[in-house]
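Budget justification aside, the reviewers requested a transparent look at the raw inputs and outputs of the sequence design task funded under Objective 1. We therefore reproduce one unedited record. The lines immediately below are the structure tokens for a 141-residue chain.
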């Protein structure tokens, strides 16, 4: 059966390309998604991509995809304080990989703490859009 993976982009990531470009780069979310979709075709993965600005929407998506090959999540600011998203990740069978575009460990102190990563298989941070590609590699293998 074909592997199924979903990507969840958290709040404010819809503004990629215009938002703090010195940190997040000039590529838009549409460009990032196009790159992921073509990588998924090459890796023979069925890939679906979502972007949510609210916590509840993210939790609903996690519940809905509780038994698939994998989930790649960039919880954005929720990373640092959402116990509800951490609990949702813990509640499902699907392995979840947390990704960040920027290196959350070399920015403000509050960003180096990830509540959500406690529930994940692992965290890939600081490689821009390549963080997502690495996560796809991990989940496929
Ligand atoms: C981010 C890092 C978070 O600290 C921040 O709130 C984001 C983006 C990243 O991808 O580098 O919105 O998750």
């Amino acid at each position: 059966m074909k592997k199924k993976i979903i990507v969840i982009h958290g709040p404010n990531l819809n503004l990629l390309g215009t938002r703090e470009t010195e940190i997040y780069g000039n590529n838009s979310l549409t460009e990032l998604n196009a790159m992921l979709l073509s990588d998924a075709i090459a890796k023979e993965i069925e890939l679906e991509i979502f972007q949510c600005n609210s916590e509840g929407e993210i939790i609903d998506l996690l519940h809905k995809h509780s038994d698939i090959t994998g989930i790649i999540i960039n919880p954005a600011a929720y990373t640092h304080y959402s116990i509800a998203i951490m609990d949702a990740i813990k509640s499902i069978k699907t392995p979840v990989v947390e990704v960040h575009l920027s290196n959350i460990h070399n920015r403000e102190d509050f960003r180096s703490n990830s509540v959500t990563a406690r529930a994940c298989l692992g965290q890939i941070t600081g490689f821009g859009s390549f963080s997502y590609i690495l996560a796809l590699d991990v989940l496929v293998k």
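Residues 12, 74, 76-77, 79, 100-102, 104, 111 surround DQA (CB under 6 Å). The chain has a mean pLDDT of 97. Computational costs for records of this kind are itemized in the attached budget.
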